Amino acid sequence: MPQKDLKNAGLKVTLPRLKVLEVLEDEGPHHLSAEDVYRKLIA
After folding, report:
1. How far apart are CA 38 and CA 24, in angstroms?
2. Cα separation, 30 vs 4, whole angstroms
3. Other beta carbons within 10 Å of 23
4. Cβ proximity of 20 and 37 under 8 Å
5. CA distance 26 to 9
6. Helix (H, G, I), strand (E, B), or coil: what is residue 16?
């Protein structure tokens, strides 16, 4: 999702938030727990 779309939605765009969004987008429709996201971010 482009940063412009996030800003237009009223969201503050930060690097950590972009990294989390990247993990969620890469997983597609699969559910991830917070722990799953954390593990992918530190890998």
Report:
1. 11
2. 25
3. 17
4. yes
5. 21
6. helix
Both structure tokens of 39: 């593990």
42: left (phi over 0), alpha (psi -120 to 50) or beta: alpha
Compute the distance between CA of residue 38 and CA of residue 8 in angstroms, rounded to an integer. 27
Could you identify the residue written with the tokens 């969004």?
Answer: 21
Q: Are 23 and 41 in contact (CB under 8 A)?
A: yes
Read off the pLDDT of residues 12-41 as tens digits, 9 standing for 90 and up. Answer: 999 999 999 999 999 989 899 999 999 999
Whether pTM > 0.85 for this model: the answer is no
